[in-house]
Amino acid sequence: MSTGHTASYSSRSTPQSMHTHEQSFHPSLQSSNSARAFVQDIHSRLDRADREERELARRLVPRLAARAYHLEDGNTWCQDWLQYQKNTHPVFGLCFHHKLHPIRGPQRIIILMGSIAFGLAITNIVFLGLLNSNSAGQWVNLVYNVTGEVSEIQYRYTHVQLEQSMLFLWTVGSFLHSAFDMLIWYLAACACFRPGGIAGRNSHFCQTLGLYIAVLVVVSMVFIATLVIVMRLNEDEQNWTQLMHIDDDSNKTMLSTGLNWTGLGFMNEDNNSTTSSLNSPRSTDETNSTGFPGISDLVYSKSDTKYAFLVGYAVELTIALFVYYFITSTVFFSGILGCGRIPIIGGRPYELRHIARNSSRREGRKTGSYDHSDSSHFSGNV
């Protein structure tokens, strides 16, 4: 009986021992199972991350394209202002824009080129004196004359002389410059035909068309800036030629005052003494007192004009990009113009009201108990 009992015990334990024996001889089976589970876990994580990325892009891309003031839920006023400047500024946006922003680096370079060309064009227009001509129009002349009056008042109280053209360039010109930057941005982003836009549909053709229109505007502005630069250079060259060309008529005019131009200075006919413009340190004052410029005055006047133009353009561009742009964008961001209740100029407060209204509607549809009086309240406030 002991033999039979032993045999039956061994027969019952045989399958487990065989399974254990099989696993001991196949260690690669366990490693393959663990590797398969590890790969599946990686795929699931990647799929989850990809879904989250797509969902984030679906929410943020329309807001980024529309220059949204409130980008993500939970952002404070300072966080929203900072992201707005980093995503929309022509210079800072090149390096600090959001990774999901539809306006990429090459498009931002085009926008910056248009901004530089506009500043160059308006600076040359001011230096050419086209603003106070009849062809400029009544309203332009009116604004330019008001700028002159402001310049006189400013000099009266501060005793700092600032030319009328410079004051106009650094105030009205810089403001128009920042407005042009915003216009180019809206054309390039073309938020109307993105998901959530005014058109209500996603049209890739219309988005591309808006970018092409922006490029066309930038190219036109570069052409206008180049044309105005050529006009200014021609006028400067003509003025320089007229100043350097002293013909017989001008000599006769000088002779009538008792002076004669000798090429090096003015010679007094009474004592035959020559006042040199180049050697005498008093020549500049003496010639200016008679009303005739010396050679040094003529030479330095041309270089001074060039430097004045460069300084004017540099200051205008700096004020437009780093002063007026921040002021203008902050005014629109705050919603002061629309008291936070009017579209487009309502700023961040209007967007927060709009988001709250949409959230209330979605919750009402889910629960089936949407409060219409609350909807009318929001719509009335907006």
3D architecture notes:
By secondary structure, the protein is an all-alpha fold. Among the domains are: 65-230 and 306-334, no CATH class; 249-290, no CATH class. It is built from 13 helices and 3 strands; from the N terminus they run αααααααααβββαααα. It has helices at 2-25, 27-65, 77-88, 93-96, 105-128, 138-158, 164-189, 204-244, 248-256, 283-290, 295-334, 347-367, 372-381, and strands spanning 259-261, 265-268, 273-276. A 3-stranded antiparallel beta sheet has the order 1-2-3. α5 runs antiparallel to α7 and α5 (105-128) packs parallel to α8 (204-244). The radius of gyration is 38 Å and the shape is elongated. The termini are far apart. The relative contact order is 0.08. Residues 6-11, 254-300 and 370-382 have low confidence and may be disordered.
Summarize the structure.
With 382 residues, the protein is mainly alpha-helical.
Give the SSE map:
Blueprint: H1 2-25, H2 27-65, H3 77-88, H4 93-96, H5 105-128, H6 138-158, H7 164-189, H8 204-244, H9 248-256, E1 259-261, E2 265-268, E3 273-276, H10 283-290, H11 295-334, H12 347-367, H13 372-381
Antiparallel strand pairs: 1-2, 2-3
User: How many helical elements?
Assistant: 13
Rough outline: elongated
Q: Distance between termini?
A: 97 Å
Helical proportion?
A: over 70%
Number of E-state strands:
3
Question: What does the main sheet amount to?
Answer: 3 strands, antiparallel
Q: Which secondary-structure class do the elements indicate?
A: mainly alpha
- Kindly report the spatial arrangement of strands forming the biggest sheet: 1-2-3
Mean pLDDT over all positions: 70
H/E element order: HHHHHHHHHEEEHHHH
Would you identify the regions where 5 or more consecutive residues have pLDDT less than 50? Answer: 6-11, 254-300, 370-382
Q: What Rg do the Cα atoms give?
A: 38 Å
Percent of residues in β-strands: under 5%
Region (Disordered): 1-33, 357-382
Transmembrane segments: 109-131, 167-188, 209-231
Keywords: Membrane, Transmembrane, Transmembrane helix
Biased composition (Polar residues): 1-18
